[in-house]
Amino acid sequence: DAKTTQPPSMDCAEGRAANLPCNHSTISGNEYVYWYRQIHSQGPQYIIHGLKNNETNEMASLIITEDRKSSTLILPHATLRDTAVYYCIVRVSRLNTDKLIFGTGTRLQVFP
Amino acid sequence: SQTIHQWPATLVQPVGSPLSLECTVEGTSNPNLYWYRQAAGRGLQLLFYSVGIGQISSEVPQNLSASRPQDRQFILSSKKLLLSDSGFYLCAWNMNTEAFFGQGTRLTVV
Question: pLDDT-based confidence at B18, cuts 50/70/90?
């Protein structure tokens, strides 16, 4: 079972920031939060990941709450090409186990 | 650099026929390997993963099996396909950071 919950869909105006929330209230102390996105009929694309601290890269920022029970992916200036399904994932990593369990994701629609 | 190859891109198979999808990774050693399936309009379901040669973990009971005959080769198989096996199949690998996905195989069972 997925360890994350996300809203099924969101809209965002082009040029504005897109803030995608994710709840992962059962996350364990050493489990990372990953974000991927999938554009129709393609393989998922890695965006960013984090453990406790906020992270930023050329694509996005990841804000993780202090209790680690939720996080927010921020696309600072959304473009039409950012329209995709965004998946928030908890990576389960233990001895002989290392897997990414996808939830249902958030379908982000960026409009002009 | 590391790359992942998955083929074929599309496949149409009759019910009851066998299946073999192959995935290979280049540029890394001892990766973790994964097979996912995505039904139309749905999220990705983890089917199998492998942390080493000959080590296969199945996530859900199904009509499929997986094998890892070599370090960087992961094969998804079925002896007899069902209509419900139709979907978009994705292979992925990871080491310590992000996972990388292949471009997928769209399987239609008719």
Answer: very high
